[in-house]
Protein 1
Amino acid sequence: MNEDEPTGGFPQGDRATRERGENGLNDQTQRRIGNHLRALYDSVVQQPIPDRFRDLIARLEDEQPKPDDPTEA
């Protein structure tokens, strides 16, 4: 051990990232999980909308009354 290390054995600069938060995970672990989740959800968002969903949306939009249609008022 040298003068830069506290009695707990962690170097001064690393101590904050190694301490656990309220949820039991340290900052580095939380960041790693966050990065993986972002990558996963980004790949889902980039996928094309299935044809059956596009057809459903189109049918629902066609069924909605138009504000300028006097028969629907």
Protein 2
Amino acid sequence: MKVKHYDTLTPGNNEPYCQALVTYLRCLNETTLACRGNLQFYTNLFAMRKQFREFGCASYKQREEQNRSVLITCPPGRMRICTLFGDPHLIRFDGTMQSCTEEGARSLMDNRHFLIQVTNSNVRNQAHTTSVNKITLLIRNHNCTPSLRYEAASDEETLPISFVDGVRGHETDDHRKTVEVLNYQIIRHDDHVEIAMHHIQSSVHIRRRGPYLSVSVVVPINLQGTWTSAESLCTTGCRNRSIIEIDKVLAASNRYAKCYARKLHVPIKLATERCKTVNATDHFFDACVFDLMLTGDEYLVAMARDVQSDQRALLPDLWHPSGRQNISVYNHLVNSTFSNCLPSSSNIRSWYLASFILLVAFLLFWDQH
């Protein structure tokens, strides 16, 4: 093994060489996903692991890790938040909001320390109607914490208050908590769990309202980038083909409903008045009106309020709302049109009638010949 500063090391069961192996292996392990399929990478990885076992380096690794667990601290202005909630709406790290209708699993965030994966499903069997029904957090192995996995699903009675293996957190040798699951159900009588990752000054907040889940992640700005080549919602956003132009929907709700065969469960005027009563503003107001108008579900009104409160409480230095509680800013879009519309029921009936007539004509023609 040739590594800068380690050229004079002697391979074998000795602390300097084993510590070099530990450092090298940590680097390789943290790069595994990015180097998937690279034969040279895995050749090096397996060779280093073999040396680690043969030289009995486990004892040196344990001794080294006892002395390494530096908790990151960041000033508030260097923190960012990303949230996915509702039917569903995404607020990215840059503060922009997108509404999208993606089904299946997507990475919400992926960096060297943890991965958040969300699964969206169609909850009403209607076009453009999806919501988060599963959230998986994988905390990667680190010198401050072991690998931990947390899962939440909308079909469970309550949010889990521990990781999947039953543990509630992890401490260093000097009893500093690096990771812990905080349960706010007892304190606030609210289905709300926080997974605090103190070693990287990050946190994941998961809420549940009825059959709906929401997730917010708070990280230092230097950790918000994507670790692998895969696209993550918090950084790259929704796929273009799945984006719902919510400003156009709020300006031309009847056209949108007709285009996608959606029912307007609550008139838009009543929806705006209801969302005012929970003090939703700006992006959260738009999301609240959109969700209530198209579903009539009060759980989604409460969720918009909850997520807005979380953003204000978690990063008050970045909370600068305009206080907007109307959709008149979208009046210029009142004549908007929508693409890829679904056939209306009348068009479907006409198609079946025309097909039936053609079939009868064909049978009559065949019978005469």
Protein 3
Amino acid sequence: MVLKMFSFHTLQGRFFLFHHSSGINFSTMSFPFGKKAESDTKKALKSLIAHELKTNGPSHKYIYLVINTDKPLTRERDYVPRIIPVPNRMAKASESSILLITKDPSTPYREPILKKGSPTEDLFKDIMPLKKLRSLSKTTKSLKKLFSDYEVVVADHRVHHLLPDILGEVFYRGHKRVPFMVQLAKPDGVPVKKQDKVEKCDPKYVRDQVRSICKNTFYIPARDGTITVKVGYVDSTADEVTQNIASVVEFLKNPKFKPAGGVLKHNNQIRGLFVKTNESASLPIYKRVDEKKEDLDDSDDE
């Protein structure tokens, strides 16, 4: 199966989602670091899932992949989630409670999105202009209610950069519910004077982006040498989560997925991989052998 995906391209220093026709071919993908690492991954996942079931009973808790790298991916704060395609669905847009945040006013977008028969007619639980969001964010209580009301938050790329100051720690601490960036219409690349600009909205394009966000997983570049990615659930199978892990590592390592992927270059490689839940200890599934240390160990034996 070849998955068509959305990825990020930069334009004037900003990140945008776009439809990418050449995705990852999951059917031909082998597990990174070989068969032993794949076997160790499945064993660790079976142990993790069994422990969770025994301790807490059946649940839909997230399983995380923790990736330790040689260097941080960034030195600056970054709040833009990068979508990573995975073969086993994380969620369905139709079963998720989704908030869309737009520029002011929201009318030019609300009307085509909610129009009867539109691909996005029932996609969003609410569509909120930035002005209303600012007024709701004045108290922590209101922000916490907003947090609990929506499972997924997506925002027009033109206002996305304003949200960290508005939503604050309630949404951004630990990347709890960082808003995803969407474009409300396909970019045509034609410069338009501000006074002549017509606000466009393409419901099908919006729907396709939101579906991709819900179906797949994501990462946010951190300022330490750790990348944490949701790769499945406690009620997933070990095989399903293993397949998702393979896809995540392939996306982060392979330069053909730049600029969103291919971020682990020759001078910044994976040191170790671990799986965990929010409450569990981290179980190792791969650890890089330090070649210099191995050479020293060999010389000691001589």
Protein 4
Amino acid sequence: MSTCEPIQGDPDFYGRGIRIGVYLQWTSAWLTLLLDPESAQGVLDANSVFVFAVTIATIIASRREAAQIEIYIMLQMLLGFHITTLSSFGIRIWLMTPGRVAKLLRRAAKEWKKDRQKARENQEGIMRDRQRAVDQIAQSVANYPGLAKWILAVLNRFSTVSRSGSHSASSATASVAILPVHLLSALKFPGLTWSGVVWRTMTLGIIAGFNFAYWYEFPNSAATSKLLSDPPDICGPPTVFLFSKQLLQGPIVTLGYAVAIILLLVVGPPIYTLLILTVQIHYYGVLLLFRDVAYWVRPRTGERYSAAIDRINEVLRTSALPVMEAVQFYSPLFPAGMVAVEALKSSLDFLHFMTTEPTGDAIRFTDLLKVFVSLGMGKPSVRAAQEGEPVLSRADTTRGGWEPTGVAGSFLVRATTVLFNIYTFLSIAWFIISIELAIKWNNIEGVDSIDSTGQLIPFIIGCVSASQILKKIILLALSKKYPEWVDVQLNVEIGVNGPVVLGIDKPSGGGNPAAAPFNTRAPDQDQGRAIWFRDT
């Protein structure tokens, strides 16, 4: 595309300052998550906010019919964050060191055992409920022997169909919606908040959807039609990097479309699960708030209707609900039975909920606010603390954390972590090369200087992030080389006449804490500041 007229790029979208800032954020985030897992929440929050802003800007630019290659470059940046460093649940952080992989395997095995035990208990409960429903129908039609015999024969005939048909289908549906809850709960890295997980996952869903729309509409877009309608000796399709110089047409577009579909299939289940749970929590919040306000305005609302509602509940439970539950267990015969039973149960639950006064142990709207606070905090849960689950910290990457034992010391685990870090490094290099070559090959001008205000913010953020990770690397190297330096402490005290006195406490006698303290230099009381050194 070198013979085309130059494309005037937007420096506020992908100028040199922004690109350098993004590249530095990728590298610094990778090293920070590797060396300091305690800071994972802050790193992911900062990157996710930047990614969300770029996502909105990219969508707006696409609606203004920006050049296809410009949208492609922006998508490379957005996908680059998620493929290199930005992790929704923190799975990438687990795979960075052997100690973390070992802990992940233990957690996954524990959750799998609990899930299997719960599945067996649920299956036993289903069989008991089904038998109870059959018995109730038999009692209801006991006065009509012919009808009872026919109904029981039909139910027994289709019980196998029900178990292997509707139950299997419902189990498959439940697996899509419920299994990720157990799986993702175990995979979430300690210290990450669930609110942050939802935020990053939804942002990834927006990017995946926009990426799919980009590749789906690419052949039929106005910009592409204009490019392809020009004479071949004047212009042609955009050029991109895919192991070599490739034209963005034909097989490359098909490949991008296929990858976009795969990405949707991968991120779809967790997005669906978290979205359903989020909507359900907010729905409960509306109900709780409505009930609390209703009882605050009219405190004796429940007493007025409790007697009538109790009679309605009794009639429904004894007459309608048993028969409809039996229909539900044999839904291949009565497809509408499932909907009818669920609607009836929901009505009963709602009536009971509205007649329960929000006092004592009843759940109130303020309790839901406490849940939001808990989900927004990254602290370990009380259950995890009671079960003795250790929380990963910097100790996992310093001193003894570098010499894994047990499962973490196996060759397979160590090789996995090494390969994963190599993959991360190569992914960062890939996206940098892809973006830079796309700008060069497609003759995009005006984006190779740092002369606009919009480029300074990501550029400065990237430089500061790089300096912070460089500081961490130096400190970790020094603490590895001289472990006794970590025990040196700085004390700030006030002298007799008010001066600020700085004291350095350092171990002596090979780090023996029992050594008697002594002052090597007394503080000067006549000066505003003084310093002394003390061995402990």
